[in-house]
Design goal:
The chain is α+β, with helices and mostly antiparallel strands. Helices cover 54% and strands 9% of the residues. The protein has one domain: Orthogonal Bundle (Cytochrome p450). Helix 12 crosses helix 13. The radius of gyration is 21 Å and the shape is globular.
Length: 406
C-alpha cells in the first residue's frame, strides 16, 4: 500500500526531483507538516513543516542513526564496512555522552572568537583564488567556478585549521565525493559502497600518518592540539576516534560550504538584479533558505512520539526535509520568492538542536567575504554555459558552473 506522500516522494527521488525538488515539496506541504509513509524504502515518515522540523530536531527523544540503531536494523555486519564503521563512530552519527564528548573536543575550532580571527586569512585565500580565476580567464577564456573557487576555498580553510598541506587537497576531493555518493538516499549499490569503503581506508591511513607526524613534531594546527590533549588525558578518546571525527569533520565542514557558495553564485549569474544585495549577510541567509546545501537529515526514536498531531512509530527512520521546511509558506510567505528583506530569516539549513552544524558560523563567514569580493573583482562575470547539477538528492548543488567575462 502506498500513500499520497509515498507517490510524491517517488517523484522527488527521481531525475525530475533532482532538477526541481521544490514542486514536490509543495505537494508534500499540502498533505500537512508530517506525512506517514507506507511504501517501504526504509522511511516511516517525512517532516516538511518548519515548526515540526525544528521541534523534532530539538527533541531529545529523536536521535541520529547510530551504531545501536544499525545493530537493530540489520545486525552487526555493517561493522565490516570501513565507511559505516567510521561514520557510526563519529560525532555526526553518535548520541548522548559520546556525541557530547566528541563535540566538546572540536568545539574549540568553531568558537565565535576563533572564526573571527580567521577572517583575514579567509580574505587572503579568496584574493588568491580570484587571481587564479583571472589567470584561467586570460589563458582559456572561461573557468569552472566550482573547481577553481567553490571547492578550494572551504577545503583550504578547513585544511589550514587541521594542518593538512594545501598540495594534498586535490587528492582529497575524489575520495570525499565517493563517500558523498554513498550518503545519498538513492543509488546505494554494492559498487558505491565498495568505493566509499576504499576511500575511507585511504583517508583513515592519511589521518593516521598525520597524527603520528604531529605526535613526533607538533605544530600550531588543530591536529597537534588535539593529539596533545588526548595524550595528556584531557579527552577520553582514542586515535581511532580522532580519525573518525577528523574524516567526518573535514567532509562536513567544507562540502556544505562548497554548495552554499556554488548555489549563491549561480543565483547571481542567473539573476543579475540580485547582485547589489550580495554585500549583505541577509543574502547568504536567503541563499541558505532558498537553496539549502543539505536537503534533509534522518532521525529515529526508541518510542512512539507525537509530532504536529501525527504519531511517529518507534525505531523507524523519519526524514526531516530541511529544504521543504525552508519553503514552508506558514513560516516564509511566498517561499518560492528570493527575498533578502524577509523578517526573522532563520532557515533550518544547518539543522537545530544538539546536532546543529558546528561549522555554521565559519561557512557563513566564508560566503559573506566571497560574494562581494568576487563581484567587485569581476563585475562582468557571466555564465559561459549551463551549469551541471550535482547528481545527489541529499546535497543540492552543482558539479560544474562554467563562467566567463564579458
Amino acid at each position: 500500500m502506498t500513500t499520497a506522500a509515498d507517490q510524491v516522494l517517488e517523484g522527488l527521488f527521481s531525475e525530475a526531483g533532482l532538477d526541481d525538488p521544490y514542486r514536490y515539496y509543495a505537494e508534500l506541504h499540502k498533505l500537512g507538516p508530517v506525512s506517514l509513509l507506507e511504501g517501504g524504502g526504509g522511511y516511516a515518515a517525512v517532516v516538511t513543516g518548519y515548526q515540526a522540523a525544528d521541534q523534532l530536531l530539538r527533541d531529545p527523544r529523536f536521535r541520529v542513526a547510530d551504531d545501536e540503531f544499525s545493530d537493530e536494523l540489520g545486525g552487526v555486519g555493517w561493522r565490516e564496512h570501513p565507511v559505516l564503521a567510521v561514520l557510526n563512530n563519529s560525532m555526526m552519527y553518535s548520541n548522548g555522552a559520546r556525541h557530547q564528548q566528541a563535540r566538546r573536543l572540536f568545539h574549540q575550532v568553531f568558537t565565535p572568537r576563533r572564526v573571527a580571527e580567521l577572517e583575514p586569512a579567509v580574505g587572503q585565500l579568496v584574493d588568491g583564488l580570484m587571481d587564479r580565476l583571472a589567470e584561467r580567464f586570460d589563458h582559456d577564456g572561461e573557468a569552472d567556478f566550482m573547481t577553481e573557487f567553490a571547492y578550494p576555498l572551504p577545503s583550504g580553510v578547513v585544511a589550514a585549521l587541521l594542518g593538512i598541506p594545501q598540495d594534498d587537497l586535490a587528492w582529497f576531493r575524489p575520495r570525499v565525493e565517493r563517500i558523498n555518493d554513498f550518503l545519498d538516499v538513492v543509488g546505494k549499490t554494492d559498487e558505491v559502497l565498495a568505493a566509499a569503503d576504499q576511500a575511507t581506508r585511504e583517508l583513515s591511513d592519511y589521518y593516521r600518518t598525520l597524527i603520528a607526524e604531529r605526535r613526533k613534531a607538533p605544530t600550531d594546527d588543530l591536529i597537534s592540539q588535539l593529539v596533545e590533549a588526548i595524550d595528556a588525558g584531557l579527552h577520553k578518546v582514542s586515535d581511532y576516534d580522532l580519525i573518525c571525527n577528523l574524516l567526518v569533520l573535514f567532509n562536513a565542514s567544507f562540502v556544505t560550504t562548497i554548495h552554499l557558495i556554488g548555489n549563491g553564485m549561480w543565483l547571481l549569474l542567473d539573476r543579475p538584479e540580485l547582485r547589489p544585495a550580495a554585500r549583505s549577510a541577509a543574502f547568504v541567509e536567503e541563499v541558505l533558505r532558498y537553496e539549502a546545501p543539505v536537503q534533509f537529515v534522518a532521525r529515529w526514536s526508541e518510542e512512539a512520539a507525537s509530532l504536529a498531531g501525527t504519531v511517529l512509530p518507534p525505531k523507524e527512520v523519519v526524514l526531516v526535509m530541511l529544504g521543504a521546511a525552508n519553503r514552508d509558506s506558514q513560516r516564509f510567505p511566498e517561499p518560492d520568492l528570493f527575498d533578502v528583506d524577509r523578517p526573522n530569516l532563520k532557515p533550518l539549513s544547518f539543522g537545530a538542536g544538539p546536532h546543529y552544524c558546528l561549522g555554521a558560523s565559519l561557512a557563513r563567514m566564508e560566503a559573506q567575504i566571497a560574494f562581494p569580493r568576487l563581484l567587485e573583482r569581476f563585475p562582468s562575470l557571466r555564465s559561459a554555459r549551463p551549469p551541471v547539477r550535482n547528481p545527489h538528492q541529499f546535497l543540492r548543488g552543482f558539479a560544474a558552473i562554467p563562467v566567463t567575462l564579458t
